[in-house]
Inverse folding.
């Protein structure tokens, strides 16, 4: 029995603080001795700091002098030598000295002053996700990069935009100066570079954060102590998001660990002689993305990974996860790991959203574990993205170029994943538009001038199709302001979103932001746009027109979406409609060009559908379709 009252055999791995001290436990099966050294015992390796071997490949001990915020490491002696290692389950790392020469911190997650507002994430069909990179999303003047608190200070922006979930690119500790986040090394420790340590800066952020709480009728934090440390600053972000009605998703990487295998990392943690990476305890000798694939066959390795989402659910209250490259996990024997991770996360927080990335798309990842699936709720889907991007790129070749709207129709009508919300769609994401990859939509739409009318109007078509098609839509940071440049994790390259364009320097940005905001609001107002139904009834490559309907099964509430990539206006365009009678023109993307567009083209706010069948539907109408536009019609609720 530990002096803390926690039996060593039931103590969690890592550092567990209590009122009388801290219990430490670590998995190191081939170590000869394991010690805990820290500022509470003068970093001394001696009999007083020696841990007890429990006989289950773990070592544990209780230290009364180790308290919250104590610094520590494990000193491990093995066949290959001896030295200190960071705790693979450390809740936080010191900000100074710089990584990797930092220490682990004993932290008490129960000490954070959460706002308990009864938050629950939205139903799955209602999610609208915004993907961002914490280090480059917003950067304060003079700062080297962005911080968690800088993202937190933008919650009102996200809420006004109309998204209801933030998906953060991986936020665990990475070894390089800049990173997309996919080279993580310390899976339970938020990235210290995204944390502010300066007292004056913390006080300044505290004032802004408390003002945001007060705007929602909630008290602020009493002082800056709630903001200290990377872990608490991530909690502040989640806390504030929940108060403002935003879910938070974390991007997690369980297929491999980053290549920063420094001497203090979990690489060869139990100090076996280095050589074959299959002997490195947590890893195999198989490489992926600059790192090493995890040893999924080992139950304790799987435990590190499957405990991880539950840890972030419990200690950070996050609402879900996007698992990176589950296809790679599967290829190296990690299907069971995925199943165990999703099972644990769902049991712990059933309302959360679990997303897989699997290429090529494999519907089995979104099937229950009991049916042999991986247990995810949804998966990234590339059909709509590739079809829309292809059409936008084809349109950029000019009025005479051939367009493949049949492919767009196939993507909108795809039933590979059912219910339809199981598909996560986008037209931009961190992989697609990073520097050296594919162009952003504004550049794709008109490579010669990404601020031309051609670019602006085609980009509106791309985003409107994303937000009106079935599935869960995802925007990538800057897409909503027509960002034209690729993005990079390195802020020194000057490729962060050009937010100053919203100050009047770039009217196209403000107009596109208004357009995206209104399009997201349209999706919220019309439940048919969030339904499981979609029927493409017209797709004409030569005319460059596509039309589809959405409805609520057994109820109606019909919505018709008409899009074109034609460079001139269609007058007197005959089109089938689901029902005769009056339909309201509830959205017209042409209004947003040079807002308010003085020469907007449309149908005067309404149309009358005739009782004349066309395009396989029982009614039809004659439309004016503005060039490069999207129109949305809704059934007049007062019309029988």
């Amino acid at each position: 029995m530990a002096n803390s009252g926690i039996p060593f055999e039931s103590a969690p791995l890592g550092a567990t603080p209590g009122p009388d001290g801290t219990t430490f436990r670590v998995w190191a099966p081939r170590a000869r001795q394991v010690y805990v050294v820290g500022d509470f015992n003068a970093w001394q390796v001696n009999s007083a700091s020696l841990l007890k071997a429990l006989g289950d490949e773990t070592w544990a001990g209780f230290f009364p002098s180790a308290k919250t915020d104590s610094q520590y490491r494990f000193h491990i002696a093995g066949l290959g030598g001896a030295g200190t290692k960071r705790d693979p389950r450390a809740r936080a790392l010191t900000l100074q000295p710089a990584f990797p020469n930092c220490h682990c911190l004993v932290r008490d997650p129960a000490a954070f002053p959460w706002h308990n507002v009864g938050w629950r994430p939205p139903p799955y069909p209602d999610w609208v996700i915004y993907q961002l990179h914490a280090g480059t999303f917003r950067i304060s003047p003079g700062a080297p990069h962005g911080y968690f608190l800088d993202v937190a200070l933008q919650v009102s922006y996200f809420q006004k935009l109309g998204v209801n979930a933030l998906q953060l690119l991986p936020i665990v500790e990475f070894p390089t100066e800049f990173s997309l986040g996919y080279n993580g090394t310390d899976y339970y420790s938020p990235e210290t570079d995204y944390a502010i340590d300066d007292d004056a800066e913390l006080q300044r952020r505290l004032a802004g954060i408390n003002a945001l709480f007060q705007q929602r009728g909630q008290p602020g934090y009493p002082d800056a102590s709630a903001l200290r440390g990377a872990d608490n600053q991530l909690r502040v972000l989640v806390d504030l998001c929940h108060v403002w009605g935003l879910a938070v998703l974390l991007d997690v990487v369980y297929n491999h660990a980053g290549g920063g295998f420094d001497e203090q990392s979990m690489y060869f943690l139990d100090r076996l002689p280095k050589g074959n990476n299959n002997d490195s305890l947590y890893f195999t000798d198989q490489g992926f993305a600059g790192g090493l694939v995890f040893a999924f066959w080992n139950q304790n390795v799987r435990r590190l990974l499957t405990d991880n989402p539950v840890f972030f659910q419990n200690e950070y209250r996050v609402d879900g996860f996007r698992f990176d490259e589950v296809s790679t996990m599967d290829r190296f024997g990690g299907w069971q790991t995925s199943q165990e991770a999703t099972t644990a996360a769902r049991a712990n927080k059933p309302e959360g959203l679990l997303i897989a990335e699997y290429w090529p798309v494999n519907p089995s990842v979104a099937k229950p574990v009991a049916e042999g699936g991986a247990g995810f709720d949804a998966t990234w889907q590339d059909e709509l993205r590739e079809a829309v991007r292809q059409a936008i790129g084809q349109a950029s070749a000019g009025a005479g170029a051939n367009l493949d709207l049949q492919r767009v129709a196939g993507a909108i009508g795809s039933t590979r994943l059912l219910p339809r919300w199981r598909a996560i769609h986008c037209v931009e994401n961190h992989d697609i538009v990073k520097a050296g990859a594919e162009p952003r939509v504004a550049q794709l739409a008109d490579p010669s001038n990404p601020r031309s009318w051609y670019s602006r109007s085609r980009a509106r078509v791309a985003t409107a199709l994303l937000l009106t098609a079935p599935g869960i839509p995802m925007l990538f940071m800057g897409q909503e302001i027509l960002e034209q440049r690729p993005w990079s994790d390195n802020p020194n390259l000057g490729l962060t979103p050009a937010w100053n364009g919203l100050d009047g320097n770039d009217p196209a940005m403000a107009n596109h932001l208004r357009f995206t905001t209104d399009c997201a609001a349209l999706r919220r107002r019309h439940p048919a746009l969030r339904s499981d139904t979609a029927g493409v009834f017209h797709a004409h490559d030569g005319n460059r027109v596509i039309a589809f309907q959405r409805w609520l099964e057994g109820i109606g509430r019909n919505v018709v979406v008409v899009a074109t990539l034609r460079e001139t206006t269609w007058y007197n365009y005959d089109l089938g409609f689901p029902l005769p009678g009056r339909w309201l023109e509830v959205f017209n993307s042409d209004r947003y060009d040079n807002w308010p567009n003085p020469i907007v083209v449309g149908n005067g706010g309404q149309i009358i559908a005739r009782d004349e069948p066309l395009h396989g539907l029982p009614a039809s109408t004659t439309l004016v379709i503005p060039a490069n536009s999207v129109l949305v019609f809704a059934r007049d609720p007062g019309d029988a």
